[in-house]
Amino acid sequence: MTRGTAEPPFRRIGIVGTGLIGGSIALAARRRWPGVEVVGTPSRSGPLPEGMLDRTTADVAELSLTSDLVVLAVPVPVMPGLMRTIAASGSAALVTDVGSTKRGVMRAANEAGLPAFVGGHPMAGGEKPGASEARADLFVGRPWLLIEGSAGPELRERFEQFVRALGAVTHWMDAAAHDRAVAYVSHLPQVVAAALMNAAEAVAATGPHVAGKAFGEMTRLASSPPDLWQGICTENADFVREALQTFLAQLPGAGEDVGAWINDALQRSGQARGRWLARQGGTTGDRGV
Asked: Which of 115, 133, 187, 229 is deepest in the core (most CB within 10 A)?
């Protein structure tokens, strides 16, 4: 992603929630189009990095009335009230979100009566929240999942242009398909990372001295914010339970030969991973499974 002279799809961007994702959207948009105005709500995690926003406001109605694009970068349970505020303001802005689940978000947008809404979920982030962790290249090469809402074709196209200009790869899907897919590829890994780290506490006296890079990579997500992930897993509980049951069925039984099991499991998993990488375009780096 580089600075560009192309006309920005949106000249005035309002961001509600200037943490890791909202802050990164602000930085990426300002780097891509230096002339756009970016306004956001104050950060709850400390001072905002210099140059992230043109100004801040705590008035969501005012922010939405002065923006062409409003991004809701807040936890999903907070969104319905914000959507009602924006709808009541009479704003004509396109509204989108970055929530990790989509069925409840799309329902809330419809119930609030937002005239122009597109559901969104950038598959990017990190275990540490907050504006201080934001960076302009966070979305480069990452999937950004889009759900059709009340916005018309012209606004949907403009928003897709916006997302792609930030470096992301767009994918349109329906809300239920989204929630089931991310339960397996995003929410289940979070559950497994937490369980693995807690299990490893059984060897806390010696484990930290002998653990290799693979253990660190597999448990990176164990440092994620508990309250954030409680909300996500509660919101998507049905599909998370399905994914967890599918995962548990893949583990060896109590009396099973673990050596034979791992031989078979790795043969199948190696083939599966190869198919996934081929569908991703052969990537083996950050986007790889």
From this structure: 187
